[in-house]
Amino acid sequence: MPVIQKPTDAIVRIHKTTICGTDLHIMRGTVETVAVGRGIGHEGVGFVEQIGSGVTNFNVGDKVLISCITSCGKCAPCKRGHYGQCRDGGWMLGNTIDGCQAEYVRIPHADNSLYIAPTNIDDEALVMLSDILPTGLEVGVLEGRIQPGHTVAVVGAGPVGLAAILVAQFYSPAEIYVIDRDENRLNEAKKMGATKLINNKDNNAVQQVLADTDDIGVDVVIEAIGLPIGWDISESIVAAGGNIAILGVHGHPVTLHLERMWKRNFTMTAGLVHTNSIPMLMKAVATGKVDPRRLISHHFKLSEAKHAYDVFTNAAETNALKVILTNDLSKPTPNPTSA
Ligand SMILES: NC(=O)c1ccc[n+]([C@@H]2O[C@H](COP(=O)([O-])OP(=O)(O)OC[C@H]3O[C@@H](n4cnc5c(N)ncnc54)[C@H](O)[C@@H]3O)[C@@H](O)[C@H]2O)c1
Ligand SMILES: [Zn+2]
Ligand SMILES: [Zn+2]
What we know:
- With 339 residues, the chain is an alpha/beta fold.
- It folds into two domains: 10-131 and 275-338, Medium-chain alcohol dehydrogenases, catalytic domain (Quinone Oxidoreductase, Chain A, domain 1), CATH 3.90.180; 133-270, NAD(P)-binding Rossmann-like Domain (Rossmann fold).
- Helices cover 28% and strands 22% of the residues.
- The protein is built from 13 helices and 13 strands.
- Helix 6 (159-168) links the parallel strand 6 and strand 7.
- Helix 5 crosses helix 6 (159-168) and helix 8 runs parallel beside helix 9.
- The radius of gyration is 20 Å and the shape is globular.
- It starts with 9 loop residues before the first strand and ends in a 13-residue tail after the last strand.
- The mean pLDDT is 97.
- It binds nicotinamide-adenine-dinucleotide and zinc ion (2 copies).
- The site of nicotinamide-adenine-dinucleotide has 30 residues, from helix 1, helix 5, helix 6 and strand 7.
């Protein structure tokens, strides 16, 4: 049971949480900031159980969305909305402090790191707003500067790549290529708006995309694998003058072929999500502009987390997308949008 450590902390009883591709990187041991024994997970919806004396925006009992990013709201990066770079926060949950795949979690800087759960969005849809929809939008679509008529390639059709495909359509690209080795995920990507499916099981995604674009490549590449192969594909398919937006969490160095790329006027961005798009995404979900429930494939109890990890890790066999873990302590709640 976590305890309040600072007046600005809140303790949240988790209702629903989930597993991220980043947690798989952690389980593989490639995220060096995560100590052995750390409780992981950085997404969830829950109920405020306790508040420190300095918390003013929330009361005990409030249903809240937890941002995967902790932010003070007061430092210079926070003032610019760059919460991921908060001087006293950033990605802490399930990284440098115990996280959300637990019955209770301590949320530092609760006033700026929690959001009241809107009554018109169901709890499981809301969990997709802790991390993956903001990441797809902010680190993928906005950093990649997608414009109407652009050709876009999303490299990796895991839940975050799929989320990027959903929100890329806010900007009306002409084509969305999606690259993966998992046929099920490619088919899901098509249902969510991808127009060209590239199966990389024979490691020839680059040749397929170049053949389909008259050797030009695509205007915007969103890298959503988080392995060196994701970078290798991205730099080979970006058009001259295009942008590569890296949202993968990388644990290994990659090779930038500057001898080939120096003359191509491309840009590359990489970074943490800030989750400053959460309020806007809440409105887009509430009005039906985007339906995050499509990203959910499986449901487990929190006490079945080990099995849930197996299912999410072996997505090609299990057809897993996002897996929802419901706290064994939770009572069933009515689903407002299906009523
Ligand atoms: N920047 C951020 O703030 C941020 C936030 C959330 C997640 N992430 C990262 O985003 C990435 C995606 O997350 P996810 O939850 O979708 O992960 P995931 O592991 O479920 O998805 C990765 C996908 O890449 C595919 N893939 C693997 N090797 C491939 C290859 N050689 N060719 C083609 N496809 C291949 C897999 O089949 C899988 O579908 C991860 O690296 C995660 O850590 C970053
Ligand atoms: Zn994540
Ligand atoms: Zn800050």
